[in-house]
């Protein structure tokens, strides 16, 4: 039963990357704001954010060509995106990162550090130095969610935890508010200027994945965003919104799978990253469940999961030897796989410790022969022995005769004991969402805006298609924060 009606100018739904920014921007523009969050704490504000020529990048002498980057992103998506939105992101990303630095980080003794290392250009994939990391000492990350929450409270934004969106209220073609629920009691919030949906996509909702992105259930055995159940998108669809017709998602290729488990037996949802193997994203030998190599391992994280989804059983094994830790640095990985990842994986020893804990847990196995290793991994022995022999010959020849992996990313398997594990994807978020115009207004099925309904972050679409371009480090979070900020500004203007 709906009990009371509360009035505000702007209602923001979801206190994560996009919602926190939307609320802050609407408040700065003079609006009265309510921010509701269904959990009892805000979502994690991501620590790496992309920008084009932010203040941190200028200080570091990093310069990015906007036109080149926008065309790269459009091409990566085969132009199945709205290039106008890519331009809007490009034009506003640095203002957003600078705002966080000036208003949230600096008052607390922190700043943004530009990560120039992504500038590597391989013959196959281009990398861009877009990443800005929140830090105090330039060596590790600092999280800033608590400081952001303080800003929200100090600026009189009404932040309500344990409060979830139930449905939107639409009168004629205008969204006038929402029914929300706290502790099983529902009430109405009337928003005179707009409602901004920032609930983070639908990766936690298996039924919606089955309907809108069935391949994701082949590729992923973990979901690292268990809060995001699609409620923003489904609420908007009920008031006539238009959504992307094709899926997009962001996947990390480092989910350890208990040996013998089948993909369809597992979709483990975690916010604490259990069984996350850092070297899983490294280009060691990867084979399908028949013990055969199936793709170049030196590709963006998601591509190996895409390729594995076309193989029997969808999972794959990674095989490496005792010298593996000496190979890590020369692979020169980017973004979240980087050797020396600030604060988390600063050294070779950190990678060894990470790997050893899963050996103890039985998620990684070791053996003195490849045949024995194959047995422990439930892989055909003869096939794996043959594949490893071929891989070692490739290394001697300095040429990957099968899939063209660059030599600096190749490694031999000749020092026992040998190691292996079964890997599957971890979905970080769905990236297809509600169609929006340049003001972040949600479109209806005639491509006209639904008045006073806005969205940002993973609830919003038109920006990604298919796989996530991880060689533009920090793009997902920056897309959420930048478009959240714009949605807040535009809603406050109504
Ligand atoms: C492990 C991991 C690492 C990542 N690392 C990076 C990175 O380094 N750089 C990068 O660019 N991207 C990264 N990403 C992706 C990035 O975090 C997301 O793309 C981004 O946070 C999406 O922002 P959002 O606002 O759409 O969703 P979220 O930040 O998830 O916020 C959505 C919020 O809405 C709330 N909510 C949901 N439903 C309701 C409801 N009905 N009512 C009220 N509240 C609701 C949720 O509880 C949540 O707090 C990572 C993701 C994961 C999982």
Automatic annotation (TrEMBL):
Residues 9-469 form the FAD-dependent oxidoreductase 2 FAD-binding domain. Its cofactor is FAD. The keyword Oxidoreductase applies. SUPFAM superfamilies: FAD/NAD(P)-binding domain, Succinate dehydrogenase/fumarate reductase flavoprotein, catalytic domain. GO terms for biological process: steroid metabolic process. The keyword Flavoprotein applies. Keywords: FAD, Flavoprotein, Oxidoreductase. One of its GO terms (molecular function) is steroid dehydrogenase activity, acting on the CH-CH group of donors. This is FAD-dependent oxidoreductase. It comes from Lactobacillus mulieris. The lineage of its organism: Bacteria, Bacillati, Bacillota, Bacilli, Lactobacillales.
